[in-house]
């Protein structure tokens, strides 16, 4: 962090491109998620095995101005999900609960068309439509996963507390209680038996 002199007017170290959500500057991390890293996400095992394991499904960029785990700080991110399907399911994120269930999050749509899949602790699942300008408040108790239902890139922004933490295990083990499938050309939520 810069030392700020009294009465100085300075440039910020980071900028954001509103057209695609890209963050530039310092304290950034980038993560690329390949199909081979998402073995428990898609239902259709045959299609999963028939698709290039090195296909990029999504990319996450995050501005981490403070240490992960610090109470009171904020993180700011951008996720891109590429268009595509495995069987009748669209490309999607792993999805997670926050480790600290009282830490919420904002998402906002930037490019493309998507679905934000949400599930409470009782496994009730519902969804919100994502599009450029959509704004989503995710209560800290709610699991969240994003899905690209369009034919171009889905990009969205996110802001969450630096001590929220991510619990991926619950979703890895038990999934969501519904799957978003393309049926007769339209996305539909289908309950998992
Ligand atoms: C987001 C997500 C991001 C990728 O920044 O981490 O969209 O999804 P997964 O973490 O489920 O792979 C967020 O919700 N942070 O808390
Ligand atoms: Zn989150």
From TrEMBL:
Glucose-6-phosphate isomerase prokaryote domain mapped to chain residues: 41-173
Q: Which reaction does it catalyse?
A: alpha-D-glucose 6-phosphate = beta-D-fructose 6-phosphate
Starting at the broadest rank, the lineage of the source organism is: Bacteria, Pseudomonadati, Bacteroidota, Flavobacteriia, Flavobacteriales
GO CC annotations on file:
cytoplasm
Which family does the record claim for this protein?
Answer: Belongs to the archaeal-type GPI family.
Keyword Acetylation applies: no
Full protein name: glucose-6-phosphate isomerase
Q: Name one GO molecular function term.
A: glucose-6-phosphate isomerase activity
Any one GO BP annotation for this protein: gluconeogenesis
Mind telling me which InterPro entries this protein's record contains? G6P_isomerase_prok, RmlC-like_jellyroll, RmlC_Cupin_sf
Uppermost EC category: isomerase
Organism for this UniProt entry? Flaviramulus basaltis
Per the record, the domain of life is: Bacteria
Its EC number(s): 5.3.1.9
Q: What keywords would UniProt list here?
A: Gluconeogenesis, Glycolysis, Isomerase
Q: Does the keyword Electron transport apply?
A: no
């Amino acid at each position: 962090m810069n030392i700020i002199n009294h009465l100085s007017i300075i440039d910020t170290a980071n900028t954001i491109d509103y057209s695609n959500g890209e963050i530039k500057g310092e304290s950034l991390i980038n993560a690329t998620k390949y199909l081979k890293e998402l073995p428990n996400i898609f239902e259709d095992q045959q299609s999963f095995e028939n698709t290039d394991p090195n296909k990029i499904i999504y990319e996450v960029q995050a501005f981490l101005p403070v240490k992960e785990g610090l109470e009171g700080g904020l993180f700011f991110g951008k996720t891109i999900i590429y268009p595509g399907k495995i069987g009748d399911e669209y490309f999607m994120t792993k999805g997670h609960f926050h480790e600290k269930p009282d830490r919420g999050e904002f998402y906002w749509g930037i490019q493309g068309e998507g679905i934000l899949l949400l599930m409470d602790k009782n496994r009730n699942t519902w969804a919100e439509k994502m599009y450029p300008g959509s704004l989503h408040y995710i209560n800290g108790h709610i699991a969240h996963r994003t899905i690209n239902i369009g034919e171009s890139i889905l990009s969205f922004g996110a802001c969450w507390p630096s001590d929220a933490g991510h619990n991926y295990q619950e979703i890895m083990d038990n999934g969501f209680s519904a799957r978003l499938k393309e049926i007769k050309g339209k996305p539909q939520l289908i309950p998992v038996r």
